[in-house]
Specification:
Layout (H helix, E strand, L loop, with lengths): L5 H8 L3 H9 L6 H14 L5 H8 L4 E6 L7 H14 L3 E6 L4 H11 L5 E5 L5 H7 L5 E4 L7 E6 L1 H13 L4 E5 L6 H17 L2 E5 L6 H11 L6 E4 L2 H13 L9 E3 L5 H5 L6 E3 L2 H17 L7 E5 L1 E3 L11
Helix pairs in contact: 1-2, 1-3, 5-13, 8-9, 10-11
Keywords: DNA-binding, Transcription, Transcription regulation
InterPro entries: HTH_LacI, LacI/GalR-like_sensor, Lambda_DNA-bd_dom_sf, Peripla_BP_I
Protein name: LacI family transcriptional regulator
Length: about 325
């Protein structure tokens, strides 16, 4: 049996092929009875409309791009899933690209995707503001975890949750803290460091700043070694992957957590729940971040030239087993 086409549907329904095409691509131009007849015939024949052909009519690729800074970081899988599910629900496929922590690659990927997608989401970008503006010129674009005045953005604001984390440690008797800073090109790292500094000044406690460290397990081990050179009894790691490296380094050196040191992460990825001890951290609303980013991007695609949207979603502090009373308190 030959593959069904709009012509075989047209013949079955006694209408023109142009009417069948409009029923799929511009349904508002076809009367409801005729449209229902065409759809019923399509189902009976097993017809699947071609997205490429539909694109010729609508001028859309029906695909969005998602560029992540480092696909090996466990922060991203849940985010990718949330973006993909929302995109599919809104009728778009997803094209995923890994920038491998390279600002230059990030910008190059935006340029490559331009002719293949209707818009792009750039998650945790490392590029400069000027480079991002230039790369996204004329292309619907949403930044995740990076605010920029003239580009739409969706960010997780962890400020309040990090204050809660600090207060949690303070109540456990800690008065000397270490900030294990994340990558220097990361807006999120700068924002989190800023929040922790503000909390420490408000509490009048000692804060030793170390790093920056790469947001990797190895970077976390290096941060753990640096932590042991200080008098700090509690540490804020940039993210959960870094914190897991810190825990491994402390365990390897026989340092008890939380008995001798307390460690706080950020993002609440799967590792945070499965590592021993389980990690005190800040939960990022992954589903909401991904869903909101796609919704904002879709509005840009459908109404280009509109004002940029800026959405902030709060993180939530979660206390687990990697924090406890200061030794001797």
């Amino acid at each position: 049996m030959s593959k069904p086409t709009i012509y075989s549907i047209a013949q079955r329904c006694g209408v023109s092929a142009a009417t069948v095409s409009r029923a799929f691509n511009r349904p508002e131009l076809v009367s409801e009875p005729v449209r229902e007849q065409i759809m019923a015939a399509a189902r009976e024949l097993g017809y699947q409309p071609s997205s490429a052909a539909r694109g010729l009519v609508t001028g859309r690729a029906e695909t969005i791009g998602l560029i992540v800074s480092d696909i090996t970081n466990p922060f991203f899988p849940l985010l990718v899933r949330a973006v993909q599910r929302t995109a599919e629900r809104m009728g778009s496929a997803l094209m995923l690209v890994d920038a491998e922590e390279s600002a230059a690659a990030e910008v190059a990927h935006v340029a490559r995707l331009r002719s293949r997608v209707d818009g792009v989401i750039v998650a945790s970008p490392r590029s400069s503001s000027a480079a991002l503006r230039e790369a996204a010129r004329g292309l619907p674009c949403v930044l995740l975890n990076r605010p920029l005045r003239d580009l739409s953005s969706v960010i997780c604001d962890n400020t309040s949750a990090l204050f809660d984390a600090g207060d949690h440690l303070y109540k456990h008797g800690h008065r000397s803290f270490a900030l294990l800073a994340g990558p220097s090109a990361s807006w999120a790292a700068a924002r989190r460091s800023q929040a922790i500094r503000r909390w420490a000044r408000g509490r009048g406690v000692e804060l030793t700043e170390l790093g920056p460290f790469r947001a990797t397990f190895k970077g976390g081990r290096q941060a753990g070694a640096a932590l042991l050179e200080t008098a700090a009894t509690a540490a804020f790691a940039f993210d959960d992957l870094t914190a897991c490296g810190v825990l491994a380094e402390l365990a390897g050196r026989g340092v008890a957590v939380p008995g001798e040191r307390s460690v706080v992460g950020c993002d609440d990825v799967l590792l945070a729940k499965t590592v021993t001890p389980s990690l005190t951290t800040v939960t990022a609303p992954m589903d909401d971040l991904g869903e909101t980013a796609v919704q904002v991007l879709t509005r840009q695609i459908e109404a280009p030239g509109g004002a940029p949207e800026h959405v902030r979603l709060p993180g939530v502090f979660v206390a687990r087993d990697s924090t406890g009373p200061r030794s001797g308190s």
